[in-house]
Amino acid sequence: MNYKLFIFLFFIFILGIGCSIKSDYSKKDIIIYGNSSAAVTAAVQLARMGKSVLFISSDNCVGGLTASGLGATDINDYKAIGGITREFYKRVYQYYDCPETWFYQEKDAYFTSIQKRVFTGWNKEEKLQWVFEPHVAQRIFREMLEEEKVELVFGKIQRNKGLSIEKGKIKQIELTDGSKYQADVFIDASYEGDMMAQAGVSYLVGRESNAVYGETMNGILPNKNVKKSPVKIDPYIIEGQKASGLLPFIEEKQPGNPGDGDQRIQAYCYRFTLTNHVDNMLQVEKPDDYNSLWFEYIARLLKSNPDWQLTDIITITPMPNLKTDINHADFVGANYDWPEASYERREELKMMHRSYALGLIWFLGNDERVPEKIRKDMKKWGLPKDEFTDNGHFPYQLYVREARRMISDYVMTEHEVTGHKVAPHSVALGTYWFDSHIVSRFADEEGALRDEGGFWGNQTIYPISYLSIVPKRTECSNLIVPVCLSASHAAYGSIRMEPVYMVLGQSAAIAAALCSEQKIPVQELKYEQLRSKLLEYDQILEYKK
């Protein structure tokens, strides 16, 4: 053999070995993608089972909404929550059980002031607490990941070409920085379902018609006058002058017939944190891109309803240390392209929602059209110096209430939520009300501003099926989706709560571990085996009063 040829082939062989070693090094049993609380519980569970796991957080905020301002947890019955999720709330209790953690108020004073909607916020007998400051949730999530030595990297999946797929099976994920990772099983725990979409899994953005699953509240749903005002509010830039045009994000007519489907989604907001302790408070400044027309309808609402209070506009839920969880600062109609948007466009939408949130607080505290009492009440609150210290004291995570929803062989619907149908193969329990925030605003035929798409309704405590977190077998065989799961718009309005995501994340992890061990598609996992392992790790699969 030619000497030069021999040397060339030798080096090719060595390089081949090197590539193989690199590939083996980067391969894991399971890869988790997303930054939600479900991603955290999944990662912790897999590490405790001795699996090699890589947690790819799509944002620097690990823990999603739970660690980014949603501190007044939507949980109707703690008895429906087990496993790592229950452990998290126990750790919250333990943190606040120490007198040293109460910097700005007395513990007893706080629990006296807490609102009924969070059921006093704690259970002393069970040593559980489900109201907390954002930095406390961040700290606990980080501690849990560090205790289990979870490998954590930050990055986003390449758009359109981020997955290598062979015969309906994901082989590799590629991030925007060019890094590549392989695994036996993948878990998409993102709020948007970006991995799921690239895997070729069926999904829907928006609302099905009521006819699709025989539901009653799923499609277009005209509501009462805006913000349930008993007085009709003018929707035009100049009141009474249709020719002046509509206020921003107001549609010129009802978007369709009641019950029809469309691609609109319920409004997003930031669950931002405020404080009224003067030593820990920064006054909210007027945003540089402040747009007064965004808040014109609120000025008209307050003029027409002079007895309204600050809490008629935003929800203020007390959190420890004289802080609040602010909700209902919804930017209706500004988020429709979020689910399918590029990362650049999502950043634009995040900044727009941030400007809206800060602009709303400034407006309520400073605009002379706002009644003096409301202005005084609003001016008592400001951004806390000790929260989100590297982000201008403002939350990292936008409240993505819904984005893509998978369509699998089993779709959770209104019927399961109300208990008229029982989902098989339980992996978690849903506990919360039907809850959809406003989807759109429009001008009706009489020239009055109307809300559309919001609903609130009773439910039972109901099982969520394993079949609703795995795709169709023909579409992808090694992916589990615990957040953007298979559910109608109506059912998702109940399921989409952070504690439920956390439980589903742990259940998805256990299923992924079993499938990795057995080298089987996620759709072929025997439920009896899964159920046994879920119970072993203290998951609650049936409700007992």
Layout of strands and helices, then pairs:
Elements: H1 3-26, E1 27-33, H2 37-48, E2 53-57, H3 83-96, H4 107-113, E3 122-123, E4 128-129, H5 134-147, E5 151-154, E6 163-166, E7 169-174, E8 180-188, H6 194-198, E9 203-205, H7 210-213, E10 222-225, E11 236-238, E12 241-246, E13 273-275, E14 281-282, H8 296-304, E15 315-319, E16 323-327, H9 343-366, H10 372-379, E17 383-384, E18 404-406, H11 414-417, E19 426-430, E20 434-436, E21 440-443, E22 449-452, E23 455-457, E24 462-465, E25 479-480, H12 489-495, H13 498-518, H14 527-536
Evaluate the radius of gyration.
Answer: 24 Å
Outline? globular
**Uncertain residue segments:** 1-25
SS elements, strand count: 25
Give me the oligomer status: single chain
Please, what is the average pLDDT?
Answer: 93
Query: What is the CA–CA distance across the termini?
Result: 80 Å
The helix fraction, in percent, is 25-40%
Helical region count?
Answer: 14
Sheet-strand content, in percent, reads 15-25%
Biggest sheet, open or closed, and with what strands and sense?
7 strands, mixed
Helix vs. strand class: alpha+beta
